[in-house]
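FORM 7B: Structural annotation worksheet

SECTION A. Query
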Amino acid sequence: MSKHSHTSSSEPELIYGIHAVQTLLKNAADRIQQLYLLRGRRDQRMSKLTALAEKQGVAVQYRSREQLDAMAEGNHQGVVAECSPGEVHDENFLSRLLDQLEEAPFLLILDGVTDPHNLGACLRTAEAAGVHAVIAPKDNAASINATVRKVASGAAELLPYVPVTNLARTLKSLQERGIWLVGTTGDTDKSLYDTDLKGPLGIVMGAEGEGMRRLTRETCDYLAYIPMIGGGVSSLNVSVAVGVCLYEAIRQRGGRGVSSPQSPVSR
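SECTION B. Predicted structure
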């Protein structure tokens, strides 16, 4: 499976922000059709990015701030790339990815996160934690757009985000592969810190406010809550909760991909 295989869509994607474009230049420079930089900006970060573009053979065009503002919705930091679309991430892609893994799968499942800023932050944390893929329902959830890419600071170019048609069906197929699903909810008596997060794992997080949908919740093997020491707020922002869960899993696993010899219970 080629890391850089492209979709047949001719609609270019806009990727902006220094981190996101830098990651793209390092990992998939062949996707960049046009690279626009802010005319007159000559600080160290921009010089580094320009040198990387030159090294990768990507031509640079200079534009005014007004021109870049018209292209990008949000803080582009003086860097906008027009790209060919990346690889299509779907159920078949996920299946191939899992077949190829040589370590215990480590997945993040987001059940209906709708805010692009939250999704971007979740992707950034998941990529830093060594997650293999982020899975979400295709409908009633945020999709990857320029805002998500900017907030993710390059993680959206590195970490597969897989929207699926039927989340419950996908979760069952993960279980059939021996992947254990741990759902997070306030409505359970088992703490995250008392839950076995070693071995093949999918951590399931609910949407902002509503939490997991009923069917998603019922499909999970275990439910766990994140202990709250203070009593002033009822829940954590989803991207913060993702960080807490993923890094507790890393702590238990002694680093990514460390499998437990035997899962504690059978389904």
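SECTION C. Observations
The domain at 13-83 is CATH 3.30.1330.30 (60s Ribosomal Protein L30; Chain: A;). The beta strands are 13-16, 32-38, 60-63, 79-83, 106-111, 133-137, 161-164, 180-184, 201-206, 222-224.

SECTION D. Sign-off
Analyst initials: ____
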